[in-house]
Amino acid sequence: MPYRAYRYRFYPTPDQVVNLNQTFGCVRYIYNRSLRYRQDAWYERQENISYLQNSALLTEWKKEPECLWLNDVSSVPLQQSLRHLQTAYRNFFQGRAKYPNFKKKDGYQSAEYTTSAFKWDGESLKLAKQAEPLNIRWSRRFEGKPTTVTVSRDPSGRYFVSLLIEEAVALLPVVNSTVGIDVGIKDVIVTSEGVASGNPRHTAKYAARLAKYQRRLARKQKGSKNRRKAKLKVARVHAKIADCRRDFTHKLTTTLIRENQTICVENLAVKNMVKNPTLAKSINDANWGELVRQLEYKADWYGRTVVAIDRWYPSSKRCSCCGYTLDQLDLATRQWTCPKCHTTHDRDVNAARNIKAAGLAVLACGETVNPVVAKAAIGSTR
Ligand SMILES: [Zn+2]
Questions:
Q1: What is the 317 CA–ligand 1 centroid distance (Å)?
Q2: CA of 187 to the centre of ligand 1 (A)
Q3: pLDDT tens for residues 297-336?
Q4: For residue 171, what is the DSSP state?
Q5: Given pLDDT bands bounded at 50, 70 and 90, which one contains residue 366?
């Protein structure tokens, strides 16, 4: 059965704020100390520290007289932070992520609890070392029991709890349609049927407000109470932008999954593209990485198929009618006419049609038949 995460806002009591602050602080301390230890071990002795060694170190650190405060919080989130570090290292060594970063005090804070460290009675959730259940705003229902609970605080000071539930999701009825989607900036997606999603450009919408609060923040004295308040205002605008972005992407992916049995999409290297500074904001708003991630897990839930096409496939330059491929197509050219069959193409719709055709070819022939799409992955990539 697939796992599904449910995220809710909650409002901690003053006691819970104290406990959560302590817990976040301990998690951060253990994560950062482990990271430093592992770095030093490598640079000084070329020694690789395993998760088990790290775990043994944690036991030692908790016995140190100056670190006894580590015992005031549940031990589970501390242990989980070692697992997270281990995952961060694995992602780094397998080329999926950058080298792990130290956690910052004013960044996003989180602590993960497994079943031994929380109580769920079907209605309320109580964390270890806390006297009362969390005051959660239950915005949606779920069936089943949480297996993991993550509490977090975003930089704007809001608290969230995320419950991981193992559940059987009812598959959607099978539909007989396949769609190719081209992702871009003018429109976040354009489908092979010619439907364009638009791009709400949330960053631009809130740019003036953000600039105003950032100017105010810059004038405040370092370490002052007013600076902290000003910083919170900036963080709230960022949170607002992130919320709008997430909401838009969810609506988009839910519609695509509901209406299509198979969704073909380009496999993009989003990280590389975001490095382009003039495009970075628009690309962040378009939220491509999250779009593909949502498509994949929703396809998994509802029994749909996502086909990722190699991003080097010449989807824009190829005529979707006759297969003729242009040598070059300028990024600014929105429309072009095929020199061979004389069809006039909208750049994005043509690309989406090619992506759909390539996706269908992958599904029909298997991944290694066509060398152009040899690197394409079938189904939800996990
Ligand atoms: Zn043509």
A1: 10
A2: 24
A3: 899 889 899 998 877 778 889 999 999 999 988 888 899 9
A4: P
A5: low
Say yes or no: 277 and 325 in one domain. Answer: yes
CB 222 within 8 A of CB 231: no
Q: Which residues pair with 3 in a beta bridge?
A: 166
Its domain, for residue 74, covers 3-166
Residues 76 and 103 in one domain: yes
Strand partners, 318: 325
**Mean local confidence (pLDDT), 120-132:** 95
pLDDT-derived band at 368, boundaries 50, 70, 90 = very low
Give pLDDT, residue 169: 75
- Closest to 268 in 3D by CA, of 362, 327, 189, 365: 189
Catalytic residues: 182, 266, 348
| Radius of gyration from C-alpha coordinates of the chain | 24
CA of 186 to the centre of ligand 1 (A): 24
C-alpha 319 – ligand 1 centre gap (Å):
5
Domain count, the chain: 2
Eight-class DSSP state of 69: G
Q: What is the mean pLDDT of residues 73-79?
A: 97
* Ligand 1 centre distance from Cα of residue 337 (Å): 8
Token pair in block for residue 272: 């590389």
144 Rama class: left (phi>0) / alpha (psi -120 to 50) / beta: left
Can you list the alpha helix ranges (DSSP code H) found in the chain?
14-45, 51-61, 75-93, 202-205, 207-219, 225-259, 270-274, 280-286, 288-302, 347-365
Ligand 1 centre from 331 Cα, in Å? 19
Q: Is residue 33 part of a domain?
A: yes
Q: Look up residue 52 and give its two tokens.
A: 């088990």
Identify the DSSP state of 374.
T
